[in-house]
Amino acid sequence: MKCSPLLQTLLTANLIFTSSATQTQIPMSNPNLGPAMPPPSNPPSSSNPSTITLSDVLGADRHINIFAGFTRDFAPISQRFEDSSLNTTILAPINSAIMTLPRKPWEDKEDYEELGEEAYEGGDGADRAQRNLRRFVDAHVVPASPWGEGEKLKTLAGGEVWWEEKDGGKVIQPGGIEVSSIASKVHNGEVWILKGVRNYK
């Protein structure tokens, strides 16, 4: 399948995930480097947390860097995450949940049934794959935050979604997908890490 931009995004994210988990640091021993610079007295990330947006934190957690990479393929999504006036809850599946899907997020069973194995070849195929991937991303973005328990909202893809408290944790419905943690709470929303993938079709 020649869907190189999308495949490259997935492989790059996976490579980052793998290498960051196994890489060790080696101390530098060059005596000519001079003294280390002291840390800045007012780091921007902590001095004014009200200016931090979802775009600043989404890529920080390596457990969801595949999904984070997908979102960067779409300017409207990236712009939403940067916009401090648009509150959003991101339902980010962990890497392993995406990697164990029966099909890649840009693949659609119906495309294969209609067009065969070359469904994603050429320019039309790349456009088709891009539309499918956008649908996947949109199904994991809720245009609201804070988001109350039982409050039924529509994702950017149009499907209705809500969450419930269960056994001391949050579960996304429909589908009963467990929320592993809330990774970030920033000015314009929150990043929720999911243990599974929402039904995106």
Q: How does this structure look, described?
A:
Residues 1-21 form the signal peptide. Keywords: Signal. Residues 51-198 form the FAS1 domain. This protein has 8 helices and 7 strands, in the order H-H-H-H-H-E-H-H-H-E-E-E-E-E-E. By secondary structure, it is α+β, with helices and mostly antiparallel strands. It has one domain (4-20, 53-194): FAS1 domain (Roll). A 7-stranded mixed sheet has the order 2-1-7-6-5-4-3. The chain is globular and about 45 Å long. The two termini are 22 Å apart. The model is unreliable at 10-47 (pLDDT under 50).
How many domains? The number is 1
Question: Rounded to an integer, what's the Rg over CA atoms?
Answer: 19 Å
Our measurement of the CA-to-CA distance between the termini, rounded to an integer number of angstroms, reads 22 Å
Order of helices and strands: HHHHHEHHHEEEEEE
Specify the helix fraction band: 25-40%
Keywords: Signal
Signal peptide: 1-21
Region (Disordered): 26-53
InterPro entries: FAS1_dom_sf, FAS1_domain, Mug57-like
Brief sketch in words of this structure:
It is built from eight helices and seven strands, in the order αααααβαααββββββ.
Tags for this entry?
about 200 residues, alpha+beta, FAS1 domain, 7 strands, about 20% strand, globular, FAS1_domain, FAS1 domain-containing protein, signal, Mug57-like, FAS1_dom_sf
Q: How is the secondary structure organized here?
A:
Blueprint: H1 4-22, H2 44-47, H3 54-57, H4 65-71, H5 75-82, E1 88-93, H6 95-99, H7 109-115, H8 122-138, E2 141-142, E3 153-154, E4 160-166, E5 169-173, E6 177-186, E7 189-194
Parallel strand pairs: 1-7
Antiparallel strand pairs: 1-2, 3-4, 4-5, 5-6, 6-7
